Amino acid sequence: MSFPSHSTLFISTLLFLSTLTSSVTAGRYPTNQHAMGKRRLVEKAATIAVFPPLAYADGQISDGTAGSAQAKAEAVCVTPFDGLDLADVSSDDLNNLATFREDAENAETELFNPAIDAATGAEATALKNGKIANKVLKLTCFDQVLKIQAAQGASNSAKITDEQTKLATNIALDKAVAGQPQKGVTGGSAESTPVDIAQSSTTTTSPTVAGSSSSGSSGTASSSSGSQVFAPLSFADGQISDGIAGNAQARAQAVCVDPFSNTSLADVSAEDLDNLQTFREAAETAETDLFNPAIDAASGAAKTALSNGKIANKVLKLTCEVQALKIKGAQGQDVGSDIAAEQSKLDKNISTDKAAAGQPQQVAA
């Protein structure tokens, strides 16, 4: 019988031990390829943008039919951040959102306003409805920008409240004309919808300041005492005299009453009351300085449309007046007889507006 040599046994032993070590190591640690794969997945998750650059034409919501601007705007500016702690939003995503908001604001001043000035009749009304939808979009995005900044350490709660007040006013204006045509300024189709934005629940680069994990949704401003609920409003932005007669009551309430719906009238601030009365005065000035001369100079269908627009403006003016008196009454002033007198005038003009339902109406330039 022959036996293996010592050298052969030594080599065999080394091979066995080498194989055993490799097997054990493979069981305890991933291979280089596996580790690299996992690292690539982590790096990919860390760089996914939740709000990539968005062109205004792709994100605008002003075409189609009025009445759903709030939901459309939230789909563009809020929904992409669902599931993401706002404290973890990257600077790129925040900058992209802020840039889109600026584009919406530029569209208002550089596109909508000149187009509205140049248009007449139904075309002007559709553009004005589109402008309101664009305001809802702009303000929803700004509200989201401010919430992200707050989650990342900014002290801007007063600014958030102010912008939400403006947002609530424009949402109410959009709902007041629900079902009417609206038109954008980018040549979109009548029923175009905003482009989907890529989103991920994975966090991006993390700022050091903790914040709320909820992106929040747009809504009315806080009803606590001292919170602004009626921001300064120009007559041009709040007027209700364009379009079709017959729904002045609802439109006027959307401007002058609905912003106070979640607030005790006894708690309305002096500033909010002053802003409401200033807007009422602007509506009264429009009646005497704009409508009356325009009606006197017009004839035929134009005269009728302006007269209908004046009635709508009276409903607006008186609705604001009654609301202002109710606030004063809730705060201890003796205004009972004044309310009754103004309410009687309001009811008369609401009836006149309803009698002309379906007829064109026009605001005086």
Write a compact overview of the structure shown:
By secondary structure, the chain is an all-alpha fold. Helices cover 61% and strands 2% of the residues. The model is unreliable at 20-47, 189-193 and 196-225 (pLDDT under 50).
Please explain how this structure is put together.
The chain is mostly helical and 365 residues long. The chain has twelve helices and four strands. It has a two-stranded antiparallel sheet. α9 (248-256) packs across α11 (300-330). The N and C termini lie far apart (120 Å).
| Secondary structure: number of strands | 4
Query: From the helix content, strand content and strand pairing, which structural class follows?
Result: mainly alpha
Count of alpha and pi helical runs: 12
Strand content: under 5%
Q: Give the neighbour order of strands across the main sheet.
A: 1-2
Tell me, briefly, the overall form.
Answer: globular
Low-confidence stretches: 20-47, 189-193, 196-225
Share of helix, binned = 55-70%
Could you state the order of secondary-structure elements as H and E?
HHHEHHHHEHEHHHHE
The main sheet comes to: 2 strands, antiparallel
Q: Kindly report the average pLDDT value.
A: 80
Rounded to the nearest angstrom, the radius of gyration is 31 Å
Key words describing this protein structure:
mainly alpha, 12 helices, 61% helix
Outline the secondary-structure elements.
Layout: H1 6-28, H2 32-47, H3 56-59, E1 64-65, H4 69-77, H5 91-118, H6 121-151, H7 157-176, E2 181-182, H8 235-238, E3 243-244, H9 248-256, H10 270-297, H11 300-330, H12 336-355, E4 360-361
Helix pairs in contact: 4-6, 5-6, 6-7, 7-9, 9-11, 10-11, 11-12
